[in-house]
Amino acid sequence: MNQMDIVNLLIPHDRKMPAKMEGHGYAPSNIALAKYWGKRNKTLNLPITDSLSISLFDKGTSTSIEASPYTHDMVILNDREIDSDTLFAQRISHLLNLFRPDPSFYFKITTINNIPSAAGLASSASGFAALILALNDFFQWELDDKSLSILARLGSGSASRSLWHGFVEWHAGVSEDGMDSYAEKLPYQWPSLRLGILIISNREKNITSREGMNRSQQTSPFYSAWPTQVAQTMEKLHTAIKTKDIELLGSAAEQNALAMHATMLTSSPAFCYWQTETLSQIQKIWQIRNEGVPLYFTEDAGPNLKLLFTDEISDIVRSEFRDVEIIAPFHLS
Ligand code: PMV
Fold this sequence. Notes:
This protein is an alpha+beta fold and 333 residues long. Helix content is 35%, strand content 22%. The relative contact order is 0.17.
Protein backbone atom coordinates (compact mmCIF):
# COMPACT_ATOMS: atom_id res chain seq x y z
CA MET A 1 0.00 0.00 0.00
CA ASN A 2 1.29 3.44 -0.85
CA GLN A 3 -0.20 6.87 -0.17
CA MET A 4 -1.94 6.97 -3.56
CA ASP A 5 -3.72 3.69 -2.82
CA ILE A 6 -5.16 5.24 0.35
CA VAL A 7 -6.28 8.36 -1.52
CA ASN A 8 -7.99 6.19 -4.15
CA LEU A 9 -9.79 4.30 -1.41
CA LEU A 10 -11.08 7.46 0.26
CA ILE A 11 -11.86 9.99 -2.45
CA PRO A 12 -14.86 9.42 -4.71
CA HIS A 13 -13.89 9.04 -8.39
CA ASP A 14 -16.22 11.81 -9.47
CA ARG A 15 -14.59 14.33 -7.07
CA LYS A 16 -11.16 14.67 -8.66
CA MET A 17 -11.70 18.10 -10.24
CA PRO A 18 -11.81 21.36 -8.28
CA ALA A 19 -15.43 22.30 -7.55
CA LYS A 20 -14.74 25.92 -6.55
CA MET A 21 -12.30 28.73 -7.37
CA GLU A 22 -10.87 28.60 -3.82
CA GLY A 23 -10.98 26.25 -0.87
CA HIS A 24 -10.41 27.21 2.78
CA GLY A 25 -9.59 25.46 6.04
CA TYR A 26 -8.57 26.27 9.62
CA ALA A 27 -6.96 23.80 12.01
CA PRO A 28 -5.72 24.40 15.56
CA SER A 29 -2.29 23.29 16.60
CA ASN A 30 -2.24 20.44 19.11
CA ILE A 31 0.04 19.47 21.97
CA ALA A 32 0.34 15.77 22.75
CA LEU A 33 -0.04 14.74 26.40
CA ALA A 34 0.79 11.15 25.39
CA LYS A 35 3.25 11.50 22.52
CA TYR A 36 3.46 9.88 19.13
CA TRP A 37 7.10 8.80 18.89
CA GLY A 38 7.90 5.96 16.47
CA LYS A 39 6.25 4.42 13.43
CA ARG A 40 5.22 0.96 12.36
CA ASN A 41 4.96 2.17 8.75
CA LYS A 42 6.96 5.17 7.54
CA THR A 43 5.18 5.63 4.20
CA LEU A 44 1.74 5.92 5.75
CA ASN A 45 2.86 7.48 9.07
CA LEU A 46 1.34 4.65 11.08
CA PRO A 47 2.32 4.94 14.74
CA ILE A 48 3.56 2.32 17.16
CA THR A 49 1.27 3.63 19.92
CA ASP A 50 -1.94 5.53 20.52
CA SER A 51 -1.55 9.20 21.45
CA LEU A 52 -3.70 11.90 23.02
CA SER A 53 -3.57 15.66 22.59
CA ILE A 54 -5.16 18.94 23.52
CA SER A 55 -5.74 21.52 20.80
CA LEU A 56 -4.59 25.12 21.11
CA PHE A 57 -7.89 26.64 20.08
CA ASP A 58 -7.06 29.86 18.19
CA LYS A 59 -3.36 29.10 17.72
CA GLY A 60 -3.17 27.30 14.43
CA THR A 61 -3.16 27.54 10.65
CA SER A 62 -5.57 29.05 8.12
CA THR A 63 -5.05 27.89 4.57
CA SER A 64 -6.54 28.83 1.21
CA ILE A 65 -6.00 26.86 -1.95
CA GLU A 66 -6.55 27.71 -5.60
CA ALA A 67 -5.04 26.84 -8.99
CA SER A 68 -1.51 28.18 -9.48
CA PRO A 69 -1.09 30.57 -12.44
CA TYR A 70 2.41 29.07 -12.97
CA THR A 71 3.78 25.67 -13.92
CA HIS A 72 4.80 25.00 -10.31
CA ASP A 73 3.15 24.96 -6.91
CA MET A 74 3.28 28.24 -5.00
CA VAL A 75 3.45 28.22 -1.22
CA ILE A 76 2.94 31.55 0.55
CA LEU A 77 3.49 31.38 4.31
CA ASN A 78 2.64 34.44 6.40
CA ASP A 79 2.76 36.70 3.28
CA ARG A 80 6.14 35.38 2.07
CA GLU A 81 6.59 33.05 -0.87
CA ILE A 82 8.58 29.99 0.18
CA ASP A 83 11.36 28.83 -2.11
CA SER A 84 10.36 25.56 -3.78
CA ASP A 85 13.76 24.05 -2.84
CA THR A 86 13.03 24.17 0.89
CA LEU A 87 12.05 21.04 2.77
CA PHE A 88 8.85 22.80 3.83
CA ALA A 89 7.67 23.50 0.25
CA GLN A 90 8.74 20.05 -0.89
CA ARG A 91 6.73 18.32 1.82
CA ILE A 92 3.64 20.27 0.77
CA SER A 93 4.13 19.55 -2.94
CA HIS A 94 4.71 15.89 -2.11
CA LEU A 95 1.31 15.72 -0.43
CA LEU A 96 -0.32 17.75 -3.23
CA ASN A 97 0.98 15.20 -5.79
CA LEU A 98 -1.68 12.88 -4.43
CA PHE A 99 -4.50 15.22 -5.43
CA ARG A 100 -3.60 16.79 -8.80
CA PRO A 101 -6.46 16.46 -11.29
CA ASP A 102 -3.77 16.00 -13.95
CA PRO A 103 0.05 16.13 -13.81
CA SER A 104 0.17 19.66 -15.27
CA PHE A 105 -2.12 21.09 -12.56
CA TYR A 106 -0.36 23.09 -9.85
CA PHE A 107 -1.72 24.60 -6.66
CA LYS A 108 -1.31 27.97 -5.01
CA ILE A 109 -1.35 27.62 -1.23
CA THR A 110 -1.71 30.70 0.94
CA THR A 111 -1.26 29.94 4.58
CA ILE A 112 -1.23 31.98 7.77
CA ASN A 113 0.33 30.38 10.78
CA ASN A 114 0.11 32.19 14.12
CA ILE A 115 2.48 29.85 15.94
CA PRO A 116 6.26 29.77 15.55
CA SER A 117 7.14 27.32 12.76
CA ALA A 118 9.43 24.37 13.44
CA ALA A 119 10.14 25.19 17.10
CA GLY A 120 8.38 22.15 18.45
CA LEU A 121 5.03 23.89 18.56
CA ALA A 122 3.47 21.40 16.21
CA SER A 123 2.99 23.78 13.29
CA SER A 124 3.25 20.89 10.85
CA ALA A 125 0.24 19.32 12.58
CA SER A 126 -2.07 22.30 12.06
CA GLY A 127 -0.45 23.02 8.68
CA PHE A 128 -1.23 19.65 7.13
CA ALA A 129 -4.66 19.43 8.79
CA ALA A 130 -5.62 22.88 7.44
CA LEU A 131 -4.32 21.88 4.00
CA ILE A 132 -6.52 18.75 3.94
CA LEU A 133 -9.55 20.79 5.08
CA ALA A 134 -8.87 23.36 2.34
CA LEU A 135 -8.57 20.57 -0.26
CA ASN A 136 -11.80 19.01 1.01
CA ASP A 137 -13.49 22.37 0.41
CA PHE A 138 -11.78 23.03 -2.96
CA PHE A 139 -12.78 19.65 -4.41
CA GLN A 140 -16.01 19.35 -2.37
CA TRP A 141 -15.09 15.82 -1.32
CA GLU A 142 -17.49 16.00 1.64
CA LEU A 143 -15.42 13.45 3.52
CA ASP A 144 -16.23 12.31 7.06
CA ASP A 145 -13.93 13.14 9.98
CA LYS A 146 -12.28 9.73 9.99
CA SER A 147 -11.27 10.00 6.32
CA LEU A 148 -10.01 13.57 6.81
CA SER A 149 -7.91 12.42 9.77
CA ILE A 150 -6.38 9.59 7.70
CA LEU A 151 -5.52 12.00 4.85
CA ALA A 152 -4.02 14.55 7.28
CA ARG A 153 -1.89 11.75 8.76
CA LEU A 154 -0.30 11.18 5.32
CA GLY A 155 1.14 14.73 5.56
CA SER A 156 2.30 14.48 9.18
CA GLY A 157 1.32 11.97 11.87
CA SER A 158 0.32 14.55 14.46
CA ALA A 159 -1.85 16.34 11.85
CA SER A 160 -4.36 13.49 12.21
CA ARG A 161 -5.18 14.99 15.66
CA SER A 162 -5.48 18.64 14.55
CA LEU A 163 -8.98 18.61 13.07
CA TRP A 164 -10.80 19.39 16.32
CA HIS A 165 -10.73 21.58 19.41
CA GLY A 166 -10.41 20.00 22.85
CA PHE A 167 -9.02 16.55 23.68
CA VAL A 168 -8.28 14.26 20.75
CA GLU A 169 -7.18 10.63 20.73
CA TRP A 170 -5.37 9.02 17.80
CA HIS A 171 -5.89 5.26 17.69
CA ALA A 172 -2.72 3.55 16.47
CA GLY A 173 -4.70 0.80 14.72
CA VAL A 174 -3.31 -2.54 13.62
CA SER A 175 -4.21 -2.89 9.95
CA GLU A 176 -1.56 -2.69 7.26
CA ASP A 177 -3.39 -0.07 5.22
CA GLY A 178 -3.92 2.12 8.31
CA MET A 179 -7.64 2.50 7.74
CA ASP A 180 -8.07 1.98 11.49
CA SER A 181 -5.39 4.54 12.39
CA TYR A 182 -7.23 7.84 12.80
CA ALA A 183 -8.04 10.39 15.48
CA GLU A 184 -11.30 11.23 17.23
CA LYS A 185 -12.44 14.06 19.46
CA LEU A 186 -13.07 12.96 23.05
CA PRO A 187 -16.42 14.03 24.51
CA TYR A 188 -15.02 15.87 27.55
CA GLN A 189 -14.80 19.55 28.38
CA TRP A 190 -12.51 21.04 31.01
CA PRO A 191 -13.12 24.79 30.93
CA SER A 192 -10.62 25.69 33.68
CA LEU A 193 -7.70 23.83 32.02
CA ARG A 194 -4.88 26.10 30.85
CA LEU A 195 -1.79 25.70 28.71
CA GLY A 196 1.10 28.11 29.02
CA ILE A 197 3.43 28.47 26.08
CA LEU A 198 6.96 29.22 27.21
CA ILE A 199 9.06 30.07 24.20
CA ILE A 200 12.72 29.35 24.85
CA SER A 201 13.81 29.69 21.23
CA ASN A 202 12.14 30.18 17.84
CA ARG A 203 15.14 28.95 15.89
CA GLU A 204 14.58 26.07 13.47
CA LYS A 205 15.63 22.78 14.99
CA ASN A 206 18.49 20.75 13.42
CA ILE A 207 16.74 17.41 13.69
CA THR A 208 13.18 17.10 12.47
CA SER A 209 10.77 15.10 14.61
CA ARG A 210 10.53 12.63 11.72
CA GLU A 211 14.28 11.99 11.80
CA GLY A 212 14.39 12.08 15.61
CA MET A 213 11.69 9.49 16.13
CA ASN A 214 13.27 7.13 13.58
CA ARG A 215 16.64 7.38 15.27
CA SER A 216 15.17 6.76 18.74
CA GLN A 217 13.17 3.81 17.48
CA GLN A 218 16.15 2.27 15.70
CA THR A 219 18.95 2.92 18.16
CA SER A 220 17.79 3.67 21.71
CA PRO A 221 17.91 0.69 24.10
CA PHE A 222 15.13 2.50 26.02
CA TYR A 223 12.75 2.43 23.06
CA SER A 224 11.47 -1.06 23.92
CA ALA A 225 10.00 0.38 27.13
CA TRP A 226 8.21 3.18 25.27
CA PRO A 227 4.97 1.40 24.19
CA THR A 228 4.27 0.26 27.77
CA GLN A 229 4.99 3.77 29.05
CA VAL A 230 2.48 5.24 26.57
CA ALA A 231 -0.19 2.66 27.44
CA GLN A 232 0.13 3.63 31.11
CA THR A 233 0.02 7.34 30.25
CA MET A 234 -3.12 6.83 28.16
CA GLU A 235 -4.90 5.13 31.01
CA LYS A 236 -4.00 7.86 33.48
CA LEU A 237 -4.99 10.59 31.02
CA HIS A 238 -8.40 9.06 30.43
CA THR A 239 -9.07 9.00 34.17
CA ALA A 240 -7.67 12.51 34.66
CA ILE A 241 -9.79 13.98 31.87
CA LYS A 242 -12.99 12.32 33.12
CA THR A 243 -12.42 13.42 36.73
CA LYS A 244 -10.71 16.78 35.94
CA ASP A 245 -7.70 15.81 38.04
CA ILE A 246 -4.85 18.20 37.16
CA GLU A 247 -2.29 16.39 39.35
CA LEU A 248 -2.93 13.15 37.46
CA LEU A 249 -3.06 14.81 34.03
CA GLY A 250 0.04 16.91 34.63
CA SER A 251 2.17 14.19 36.18
CA ALA A 252 1.21 11.66 33.47
CA ALA A 253 1.95 14.11 30.63
CA GLU A 254 5.21 15.28 32.19
CA GLN A 255 6.49 11.75 32.75
CA ASN A 256 5.55 10.78 29.20
CA ALA A 257 7.46 13.74 27.74
CA LEU A 258 10.54 12.99 29.85
CA ALA A 259 10.44 9.32 28.82
CA MET A 260 10.35 10.41 25.16
CA HIS A 261 13.33 12.73 25.69
CA ALA A 262 15.16 9.87 27.45
CA THR A 263 14.93 7.83 24.22
CA MET A 264 16.63 10.73 22.42
CA LEU A 265 19.48 11.05 24.93
CA THR A 266 20.12 7.31 24.67
CA SER A 267 20.03 7.21 20.85
CA SER A 268 23.11 6.71 18.79
CA PRO A 269 24.26 9.29 17.95
CA ALA A 270 22.54 10.98 20.89
CA PHE A 271 20.54 14.15 20.34
CA CYS A 272 18.80 16.63 22.56
CA TYR A 273 16.29 19.41 21.84
CA TRP A 274 16.80 21.07 25.22
CA GLN A 275 18.71 24.26 25.63
CA THR A 276 20.27 25.41 28.89
CA GLU A 277 17.26 27.62 29.45
CA THR A 278 14.90 24.66 28.98
CA LEU A 279 16.49 22.89 31.94
CA SER A 280 16.49 25.96 34.17
CA GLN A 281 12.78 26.49 33.47
CA ILE A 282 12.06 22.81 34.23
CA GLN A 283 13.86 23.17 37.56
CA LYS A 284 11.86 26.28 38.29
CA ILE A 285 8.59 24.40 37.57
CA TRP A 286 9.68 21.59 39.91
CA GLN A 287 10.56 24.08 42.63
CA ILE A 288 7.19 25.82 42.32
CA ARG A 289 5.51 22.43 42.50
CA ASN A 290 7.49 21.48 45.60
CA GLU A 291 5.93 24.52 47.22
CA GLY A 292 2.50 22.96 46.66
CA VAL A 293 1.43 24.60 43.38
CA PRO A 294 0.02 22.09 40.85
CA LEU A 295 2.07 23.18 37.83
CA TYR A 296 3.35 20.69 35.23
CA PHE A 297 4.91 20.78 31.78
CA THR A 298 5.24 18.89 28.56
CA GLU A 299 7.81 19.31 25.80
CA ASP A 300 7.84 18.19 22.17
CA ALA A 301 10.66 17.90 19.66
CA GLY A 302 12.00 21.37 20.41
CA PRO A 303 13.33 23.48 23.28
CA ASN A 304 10.03 25.14 24.23
CA LEU A 305 7.88 24.14 27.18
CA LYS A 306 4.12 23.98 27.51
CA LEU A 307 2.89 24.49 31.05
CA LEU A 308 -0.16 22.54 32.21
CA PHE A 309 -2.32 23.91 35.01
CA THR A 310 -5.80 25.17 35.87
CA ASP A 311 -7.10 28.71 36.01
CA GLU A 312 -6.88 28.85 39.83
CA ILE A 313 -3.11 29.34 39.54
CA SER A 314 -3.04 31.55 36.40
CA ASP A 315 -1.92 34.58 38.46
CA ILE A 316 0.99 32.67 39.98
CA VAL A 317 2.01 31.41 36.51
CA ARG A 318 1.87 34.95 35.10
CA SER A 319 3.98 36.38 37.87
CA GLU A 320 6.57 33.58 37.77
CA PHE A 321 6.89 33.42 33.96
CA ARG A 322 6.62 36.94 32.60
CA ASP A 323 6.59 36.03 28.88
CA VAL A 324 4.22 33.09 29.11
CA GLU A 325 1.28 33.00 26.72
CA ILE A 326 -1.73 31.42 28.42
CA ILE A 327 -4.24 29.52 26.31
CA ALA A 328 -7.71 28.41 27.37
CA PRO A 329 -8.31 25.39 25.11
CA PHE A 330 -12.04 25.21 25.91
CA HIS A 331 -12.65 28.90 25.42
CA LEU A 332 -15.61 28.60 23.06
CA SER A 333 -16.09 24.92 22.36
O1 PMV B 1 3.82 14.60 13.27
P1 PMV B 1 5.28 14.78 13.42
O2 PMV B 1 6.02 13.94 12.46
O3 PMV B 1 5.68 16.24 13.37
O4 PMV B 1 5.71 14.26 14.90
C1 PMV B 1 5.25 14.83 16.09
C2 PMV B 1 6.06 14.38 17.23
C3 PMV B 1 5.79 15.04 18.57
O5 PMV B 1 5.33 16.36 18.40
C4 PMV B 1 7.10 15.10 19.36
C5 PMV B 1 4.80 14.24 19.40
C6 PMV B 1 3.34 14.37 19.06
O6 PMV B 1 2.61 13.41 19.34
O7 PMV B 1 2.90 15.41 18.55
